[in-house]
Amino acid sequence: MMKKVSLLATGALIGAVVAVGVGKADLSSIGIANAAAPDTYRQLALFGDVFERIRADYVEVPDEQKLIEAAVNGMLTSLDPHSSYMNPKSFEDMQVQTKGEFGGLGIEVTMQDGVVKVVTPIDDTPAAKAGILSGDLIVALDGEQVQGMTLQQAVEKMRGPVNSPITLTVVREGASKSLEITVKRDVIRIQSVRSREEDDVGYIRITQFTEQTYDGLKAAIEKIEKDIPKDKLKGFIIDLRNNPGGLLDQAIAVSDTFLDKGEIVSTRGRHEDETRRYSARSGDMTGGKPVIVLTNGGSASASEIVAGALQDHRRATILGTRSFGKGSVQTIIPLGENGAIRLTTARYYTPSGTSIQAKGITPDIEVKQELPDDLKGQVETKGEASLPGHLSSQDGTEETGSGAYVPPDAKDDKQLNTALDLLRGLQANSAFPPKGDTPVPN
Predict the structure, then answer these.
(1) What fold, for 193-327+349-424?
(2) By the number of CB atoms within 10 A of the CB, which of 40, 65, 278, 306 ranks highest?
(3) Where in the chain is the domain with CATH 2.30.42.10?
């Protein structure tokens, strides 16, 4: 029997970067083995009739493989924005990317209204250096219109030999005309964890959750604790801003780093017996030092799992703006020689039993980041609730996302500097340190 092999906890992306996680289950556990109703078979016969008519009568001889791929992808993308078909090459590319190294431009992307939307450029990559911004719409690639391409087709076109250039035609909100931005491809090596000492505070930025994230976090904490004497270390800032997600198991491991006990996250599928609960093991790697987590409108999925777990357990204060609101989990299901499908199979819930789907994580302390004048009206993140066909929230209330701008210069970073002031006692807020009882899961 074919097996499910990977769980995804990615953000609003399926493109230049994707990631897979862990877990196996029989397809029958999600109802695949259930017999189809007679009406379903009649509809399948309709598909066969249309396919044969195209083969026989289309003005030119069609590519039958492309026809079938388009039909399968259309079926999946009609479900929600995060389900899709991957042909064998795309599936192979995805498997390479999960290792944290791949060739390309270095942007997280999704499809919106038929064009490619940039979720975020990855730090220190060709796209970031060329000036690509979160929220940019890529409407053409080397002069070829994106409209009509699938997301996978657009991503494949953006990949290519190292040092080869590609010209992106970009529509940016607030700009009077489209922009032509040439980017030179390079090998993209994802360093998912970066850290530095801010005098008496340890700053750790997690850009996405790859196979190396937990190890990178562990090494960062050890280095900070070695460089800053224990009696002088005020605490840690974990920066999850513009982190679109990644591996579910890595999000769990990162959360566990700061927790001594309790549930981290649960995933609940279509059937009751599919519920999975993941709990922390004994031991807080930081010894209980104060923690502030930074989030914004580009923090999605796996990032929201971490923020939600630490917030619900009162282990960290969440500071910044509302997160993206992607509360669903995708499973990669291989199809033998025919590639794989990425299928949304579950929602995830924070330890208090809350689904953040189409709502996001509300920060304990809201700090909005001002945009420079030249970017006002050009940078916008609308959140999961704005994506066509998104899964609706379970209680019927939905929230829009928030801004995703992070200043390149730390001195202009209002969210970071507020966190530093709180940890050093230069500012006070009732939400820091966090107080109250840990919510009981339901």
Answers:
(1) 2-enoyl-CoA Hydratase; Chain A, domain 1 (3.90.226)
(2) 306
(3) 101-189
Among 326, 359, 393, 402, the one annotated catalytic: 326
Sequence-separated (6 or more) residues with CB below 8 Å from residue 176: none
Inter-residue contact 351 to 263 (CB < 8 Å): yes
What phi-psi label fits residue 383: left (phi over 0), alpha (psi between -120 and 50 degrees) or beta? left
Nearest-5° angle of CA 379, CA 380, CA 383?
150
pLDDT in tens, 364-376: 999 999 888 877 7
- Strand 137-141, strand 115-121: pairing: antiparallel
Report the relative pairing of strands 179-184 and 186-189 from DSSP bridges. Answer: unpaired
Q: Strand pairing partners for 157?
A: none
* 288: DSSP letter: T
Q: How many angstroms separate the Cα of 323 from the Cα of each of 243, 294, 361?
A: 10, 10, 5
Residue of 83, 90, 195, 301 marked catalytic: 301
* Mean pLDDT computed over 252-272: 96
Distance CA 4, CA 28 (A): 10
pLDDT one-digit tens code per residue, 398-410:
998 898 889 989 9
Which residues have CB under 8 Å from 400's CB, separation 6+?
382, 383, 385, 386
3-state SS, 388-414, equals CCCCCCCCCCCCCCCCCCCCCCHHHCH
Q: Which residue, 94, 240, 217, is CA-closest to 155?
A: 94
Q: What is the phi-psi region of residue 309: left when phi exceeds 0, alpha when psi lies from -120 to 50, beta otherwise?
A: alpha
Q: Phi/psi class of residue 97: alpha, beta or left (left: φ > 0; alpha: ψ in -120 to 50)?
A: alpha
| Residue 226 falls in the annotated catalytic set | no
| Distance in angstroms (rounded) separating the CA atoms of residues 256 and 306 | 9
At 58 the three-state DSSP class reads coil
Given 3-state DSSP classes, what are the helix, strand and coil percentages for the chain, each rounded to the nearest 5? 30, 25, 45
Active-site residue 312, yes or no?
yes
Query: Which pLDDT does position 436 carry in this prediction?
Result: 78
What angle, 0 to 180 degrees and rounded to 10, lies between the N-to-C axes of helices 248-258 and 213-227? 30
Partner residues linked to 245 by β-bridges: 10
301 is catalytic: yes
Q: What is the mean pLDDT of the chain?
A: 87
What is the enclosing helix (H) or strand (E) of 86? strand 84-86
CATH number of this structure's domain 101-189, picked from the four choices 2.30.42.10, 2.60.40.10, 2.40.50.100, 3.30.1340.30: 2.30.42.10
- Calculate the CA 315 to chain-centre distance: 23
**If you count them, how many residues does the chain have?**
442
User: Exactly one of 80, 136, 249, 312 is catalytic; which is it?
Assistant: 312
